[in-house]
Amino acid sequence: MLYKFTKITTFLLLCTLYFPYNLFGQALTKPQQVAMDKLLLQSPIFTRHLYGFMLYDPNGKLTLFQKDADKFFTPASNTKIFTLYTTLKVLKDSLPVLRYTQDGGFTVFQGMGNPMFLNPMFPQDSVAWKFLTQEKKHLAFSASNYKDERFGNGWAWNDFRDDYQAEKGSFPIYGNLARFRLDSASKKWRTQPNYFLSTLEYDPLNTSSEAEILREEHDGHYLYNAACLRAAKVSINTPFRYTAHLVSELLTDTLKRKVQVWNTPVLTNTWRTLSTPLPDTLLRLFMQESDNYIAEQLLLSCSARLYGDLDIKRTIEYAQRSVLGSNPDGMVWVDGSGLSRYNLFSPRTVVSVLEKLYLEYPSERLFKIFPAGGVSGTIKDWYAGKDGKPYVFAKTGTLSNNHCLSGYVRTNKGRVLVFSFMHNHYLGSATPIRREMQKILEWVRDNL
Known about the structure:
The chain is α+β, with helices and mostly antiparallel strands.
């Protein structure tokens, strides 16, 4: 018995000698604790608003530092971390693009939430395109499997013109955005898709000095003002009012073949689903540019995979029950993007999902999906590493008076630590808060 005990003790000692941060993790030393207290708890910037923080070692299963990590905060786009994990677990490596069935002389098809179809940000979705262009029977689009709303729960209703709040839909097309460009020399408009050129009109009553293209919430006409004609360059993307009728018209115009709306109930169990590989390019754009449209459509695609119908609330309930499992503090999760202020997460819950991602997926892949400090995405201008080598891989989350940053920090000693900063209810710009977070993360990189 003594011999076995000695062998175990020797093994643990060797781990300590040869692995500076051994299998069991390493807590902060007293001087490190004092330094973190001074940096975070005594920050003159942080003490003016509500904030929470957690620093965690996923290899040692050890909380290194925390401040109000169990309190709830508005996460903004940190919500996308939960959407990413759910997407990877439910869709795995395959994205459904549409499903179809036959009804007499018609091929009836339904959308499955695919955000890439005719989206100029991605190569052509050849699976859906080939099917729609080569199908012999008459095409009919059915939206009866869409059980969601056009906006998420708690979204700002008067942001309907802004490109970061494109409407949701079962069969998104062109990213659910109308894109307007004005040639400064010829003063001729170009649109993508071309369909919207006929909907564009001049509005002499709009005297704004800013170039604007506006539409009423439920209208399909776009009005540009005189400032557009005076501008050196006009490039405006704005959401269109998503309806089944508009989808059929856009498809008819693009495919050069009639696509009608199918309003008859589809009573069939003969649906066939077409899928395409889920590309990391989609996940990178979603996370690095914090694309709200892609976030919502990915959760709708998860719903389509799980149930055939598209319902984000149902997907979130499934994710909380069967994907995320137990979490430290509970949560309020209502949308895929974080546009809603109804979302509430604690830093500790955010860290728990980041830990799952880190332990279940290769870090090389994961760090290419997340924004990289000084290199890509929403932190391209912050958290730059030495010699251009990033050390922070993290998702931002920003709404007015709220800013969060959660992800991974790679230290000079080779440790990968998980962290979550959540700041709510500050006044003014987030820039001073970013500077303070950068100071802390640089200290973590250099000292842990």
